[in-house]
Amino acid sequence: MSTSRATSRPSAGEPGFPAWLAEQSDDALVRMCTLRPDVATPAPASLEVLASRLRLPASTARAMGTLSWPELLVLATAAALGADSGAVPLSAVAERLGVGSNRKNRKNDDDTAPFPTAVARLRDLALIWGEEDGARLVPVTASAIAAAPVVAPHPGEPGGPSLEEAWAGLSAPASGVLEAIARGRSPVGALGADASESVRAAAAELAAAGLAEITTGVDAVAGGPGGRGPAGDRAGSGPGEVVIPRAHALDRARHGARPAAASAATASGTASASASATTGATSGPSLLDLPAWADPVEPRTGRAAKNADASGGVAALDLLHRCDSVLAALSTIPLTTLKAGGVGVRELRRVARAAQLEESELPLLLEVLAAAGLIAVGDTEVGDIAYDSVWAPTEAADIWSARDPARRWAELVLAWWSMPRAPWRVGAELEGGGTVPALGDPVGPPPAAERARVLGALARLDPAAEPGDTLLPEVVRWFSPVWFSRAGGSPVTETVSEARRLGLVVVTTATSAARMLVDGSPAAATAGAPGTAPTVEELEPVLAAALPDPVSEVIVQADLTILAPGPLVPELAAEFALLADVESAGAATTYRVTESSLRRALDAGRTASGVRDLLARTSVTPVPQSLDYLVEDVARRHGRLRVGTALSFVRCDDPSLVAQVLGSPAAEKCALRMVAPTVLISQARPLDLVEALREDGYAPVVEDTSGAVVALSRPVARVHASSPGRAPRIPARAPGPADLRAALAAMRSADRVRAARTGAGGPGGAGGYTGEAAIARLHEAASTGSAVTVSVVDAQGRSTVRLIVPASVGGGRVEGIEPDTAEAVTLPLHRVISVADVDPTR
């Protein structure tokens, strides 16, 4: 096991970073600030300040979080070669990774090969700096990569054919241990005191085969093998043995066998490494190439994308139908909220039964409807029943329901993309007890960022690639390894499940709509605001193209069902929604004609002849005789009983039928009494009386004073979305290219003035650090264990200079020790005037 390298601050490493930054072109600095917007907001006063912000641990961590697996692997390899102590040749980094710095990609030219692409992006992010043929790291980046979930390749580790040979010789327990580590969040496995003998034997077998290294937790904390291994706190706290797989073995366990030899350099040891360095070329895919699961099953990219869009459109029709069912249910039975906020399980079950949906479907539907403003919490009334603090449809729901399917779909998709709650977390256990309620306060990390990570990874795959559900976590890990190490696989699978139900992902393929969400608004990108979500108007045409074409013909079947082979044209959809109940929705919609649905149509003024004419005109098959009989039978019985107000009355020309009604359960329920052989009166409201009679098998209608039939319906609940007490906070706009160029011009001007005054020669010259630069220097000193002099001012305005070795910087103070006396020192950050380096010759 290699020992960790010394952590003293290199005398020639970091100070050149501000000078290198000043030498970069404006285009390069604009690109850097665009990729790392946190360092440009607010605009830095000088390039020295910009350099200080780029070296802050928080900013470095954010930049590391945007790296893909190849980029993280290149950075880790450069750190393992000592790039924080001085320049490391890129050829040495490429050799260690088993690629040539000019190695051609299988499908693209040199400029887009994985290694130069990764190096270029790391340089754009200022995580790598220095000459074009070398790589250097600032200490804070080296510290961050030491804690990252990555293992750099080790010289002489098995790769290519030798890896496959070693893999084939592994026992089942050994390969199981390796695969378990590979599938975890961290590439480290802990061998605790309770580890079984079989697990320890498997770990020893991996070490003997050169596929892993066994080290102690103390060494892992210190930096792992070679001073650049994973941090020990990811494998367990305190001393103890940990298993760190080799990079090629880890890649093999996660992604399967590579088609050909990965690298002669890493497979054959030092002698082969020299030969590989001479040739500068390798054969077969390397650790930086996309795994086999990213390759299309067959070259059908255009057709695969089109098929995925069409399948997404089918899922959208089903989504719209289910949303309509939820809105209809909430219109009559609003959701009561809990005292602590949100909606309880009992309420969800009640609404699920009313909407004829599975209870597991409701959290997503409710959250999306709430985010779209179609339901809201407030006070409402249903008839003469008042409800306090309930979730019910808003007036916007009526407008939304009347719009075209593409527009309705677009509004739901954009609401899901940015909504602050994660429906899949509903029902999860809370730390303080209880479970996460639906429509409650947001819990967990921001789900919008999770959705962007997951859909962004799928959008970067070829549409024809089919990795499968089991490899979905590995796909996201490849493109966002740092985020995956914190979040795990649950957000990946659950987010994909939600996206499938919204028609944005089909199996594992991102649709065109999902890719537009990831890419952002084209208009905003043109205006210099990349990453802005598309508008409804921009997204609607993409979704409209994915929806099936509307049809005007149906198939009437003998089992009293009507099959629409696609979405019906609007006028027919309204007629069939009145005439029949939707039994299933999707690419084809199945309607079922029942007595109650026919009565609904007759109540609305349709006639038996009109119903028969509609069916005969639109059906491509003859109307079955059974359906004709049903229509005639319902129409014959429909309206024989007439309901008025007494509050209400019942009249009928048939005295025997009136007597029959008077003896029914409805008579007692509605307090019916006879005023004439053909007339009954009741104190129940007409609609209540009609429903009671229908429950007993009668088919009454409501009439007005002239005897004309009137269609009554239940009043529905509507709430007005609560207006916020104050204007919503508008997020600060990220600076665009023009803003950044203006800021850069001001920074360069400030540096020229400073150089003229001090004669320091610009950024990176002699002198101490002040302001943000001082804080950044303290962070670096704490990460490297180097001594600095700190000038502080006390409450009386007197300044003093302290020599300390910082241990931690945060919470408004810097803590460390004085090297001469080993005395603990704590200084408030707000009293720090400047920080200066210690002359290494003293």
Automatic annotation (TrEMBL):
<dbReference type="InterPro" id="IPR032830">
    <property type="entry name" value="XPB/Ssl2_N"/>
</dbReference>
<feature type="region of interest" description="Disordered">
    <location>
        <begin position="251"/>
        <end position="306"/>
    </location>
</feature>
<keyword id="KW-0347">Helicase</keyword>
<protein>
    <submittedName>
        <fullName>Helicase-associated domain-containing protein</fullName>
    </submittedName>
</protein>
<feature type="compositionally biased region" description="Low complexity">
    <location>
        <begin position="260"/>
        <end position="284"/>
    </location>
</feature>
<keyword id="KW-0067">ATP-binding</keyword>
<dbReference type="GO" id="GO:0004386">
    <property type="term" value="F:helicase activity"/>
</dbReference>
<keyword id="KW-0547">Nucleotide-binding</keyword>
<keyword id="KW-0378">Hydrolase</keyword>
<feature type="domain" description="Helicase XPB/Ssl2 N-terminal">
    <location>
        <begin position="554"/>
        <end position="675"/>
    </location>
</feature>
<dbReference type="Pfam" id="PF13625">
    <property type="entry name" value="Helicase_C_3"/>
</dbReference>
